[in-house]
Design brief:
The protein is mainly alpha-helical and 239 residues long. It has a domain of 165 residues. Keywords: Membrane, Transmembrane, Transmembrane helix.
């Protein structure tokens, strides 16, 4: 059994490995390359910036912000909203603390929030890219905090952490499946909704996804090196 899987022994037939969603090395490398190359292109005012401007013109013509569909699309953006996800995670962590007598899921959530806040806002304020509402895409602007999309990064990381806990602690298959869907499709629909409302540039959403994948790998690494070891050591001391 690898560190990225748990063994399901609750179903009839041979036991099988279920992934907890730890990003494989090739996905981390791909995310790092994609995020780095896109960021470099934008800093050089390359073709991706012109693509962003064109996409923004197209979605502006749709007029979703002024249509009856706006509330529905806005609700979809909240699939990646921090409050939405934290409410779900609070229920999940509370349930596991009560039934399994463990605070490890809470420590993982706290670690994820810490790296998310540090990583995303360092990029946001370091690059200072203005949102599509400005007449153009400006970098290093005092009001710029569009790049990368925090909603997409949040959806990748935090729904990934939720899926991890659901699988590792053997919650019902339907719950595991629901979190799998949120971890995989949540970031996609969040990014599409943000771009369609012209709240973010397309590259903001793509790099937000890449950052979320990298940070999920960081949290898994922290867990393997620090969090799980500390909790196991505390358990041995208590015993």
């Amino acid at each position: 059994m690898t560190s990225g899987t748990v063994r399901d022994v609750g179903l009839p037939g041979p036991s099988r490995e279920i992934s907890v969603g730890r990003p494989p090395w090739w996905l981390l490398v791909a995310a790092l390359l994609a995020g780095g190359l896109i960021t470099a292109d934008l800093l050089a005012r390359g073709p991706l910036e012109r693509m962003d401007l064109r996409v923004s013109e197209i979605v502006s013509d749709w007029g979703l912000r002024d249509s009856a569909a706006y509330p529905v699309v806005w609700v979809i953006t909240q699939v990646g909203g921090r409050v939405t996800i934290l409410v779900v995670l609070a229920a999940l962590v509370g349930y596991l603390a009560w039934r399994r007598r463990t605070w490890l899921p809470l420590l993982r959530v706290i670690a994820a929030l810490a790296v998310l806040t540090a990583g995303v806002y360092a990029l946001k304020f370091g690059i200072g890219r203005t949102a599509p509402g400005f007449p153009g895409s400006f970098l290093f602007h005092d009001d710029g905090a569009s790049f990368p999309s925090g909603h997409v990064a949040n959806a990748v990381l935090m729904w990934g952490v939720a899926r991890w806990q659901a699988v590792e602690y053997g919650l019902p298959a339907q719950v595991q499946q629901a979190f799998w869907v949120l971890a995989v499709l949540g970031p996609v629909i969040t990014g599409l909704a943000m771009v369609s409302l012209d709240f973010h540039w397309l590259t903001d959403a793509v790099v937000g996804g890449a950052v979320g994948i990298l940070l999920l790998g960081v949290v898994h690494g922290l867990d393997a090196v620090v969090l799980s070891r500390w909790v196991r050591a505390r358990g041995r001391q208590t015993a």
